[in-house]
Amino acid sequence: MHNKLIIIGSGPAGYTAGIYAARAMLEPILLRGLQPGGQLTITTEVENWPGNSVIQGPELMTNMEAHARSVGVTILDDHVTNLNIEDRPFKLTTDKNEYYSTDAVILATGAQAKWLGLSSEEKYKGFGVSACATCDGFFYRGKDVIVVGGGNTAVEEAIFLTKFAHKVTLIHRRDKLRADRILQERLMSNNKINILWNHEIIEILGKQNPLGVNGVKLKNVTDGKVSQLSCDGVFVAIGHSPANELVSGKLEIETGGYVVTAPDSTKTSVEGIFAAGDITDSKYRQAVTSAGMGCMAALEAEQYLSEQEN
Question: Do domains 2-112+241-309 and 119-236 have the same CATH topology?
């Protein structure tokens, strides 16, 4: 199956790129991937999307999907497993053993949650260890939980978990947070949240039968002292890694795994491949900036394809 433009990913960048590309009569195909809608589908209140003072993340993504479909974007539930950018046209293979060729690609694969890298963390994933408070918070009604991290995600998850948990402890390895000031104010004013500064988790403790978390082993990063803290669940919120598996070793990638694009552009190191959203944005990582980059990618792809035809 050949198409002028294929968009990989279905977050704000992907859907916006699809809307602009469809309006440019490019008849784009959008492959939604393993997490349709991206990270916003596991977010609760979104308070910084223009036009909505408050909107639920899943609702926002449902609206975007409906908009994309309404203007003619072909949206397919499939996951790209291989992208060949050495030959022209580019070739894609998917989980469903479908094969596509295309003249241009917009990468909007987003980012994935980072983990602590502990063997005990791996053991208890899904059994008391989670990276999604909005997915699993309900299961901790009346219980004590820990959130790890110091950025916006960690603070938002800690605040969200107070709706269910008896107590929330935010553990951060530094002595100050990176989160937005307004979020920090909300965190500090919530009497269900305790902050443990200058500590890191070195082991997650639990029981075997049934498998579950019952505490953590901590190290004070200033004096090295080791202690334990009881809890019923651990939520890891230490950031995300760009989902660059399809292009690792094929495109220029900077420290942190972000795809490099030309200044003020979504053009990558390979002509005809464009990148938008969290896969390339190491600075802002906001839904609205991702959508803006999706717009840029579609406009640049349209220009590129037009030049190829002439």
Answer: yes
β-bridge mates for residue 6, sequence order: 29, 105
CATH number of 2-112+241-309: 3.50.50.60
* Strand blocks (E) in 140-190: 144-148, 167-171
Q: pTM of whole model > 0.90?
A: no
Q: Give the architecture-level CATH label for domain 119-236.
A: 3-Layer(bba) Sandwich (3.50)
In tens, the pLDDT along 87-134 reads 999 999 999 999 999 999 999 999 888 899 999 999 999 899 998 887
Provide the pLDDT confidence category of residue 239 given band limits of 50, 70 and 90: confident
User: Cα angle vertex 170, ends 157, 118, to 5°?
Assistant: 90
The one-letter code for the residue type at 87 is D
Q: Which residues are catalytic?
A: 132, 135-136
Q: Where are the domains of the chain?
A: 2-112+241-309, 119-236
Q: Is the dihedral of CA 56, 284, 170, 131 positive or negative?
A: positive
Q: What digits encode the pLDDT tens for the residues 181-236?
A: 999 999 999 999 999 999 999 999 999 989 999 999 999 999 999 999 999 999 99
Cβ contact 150:157 at 8 Å = no
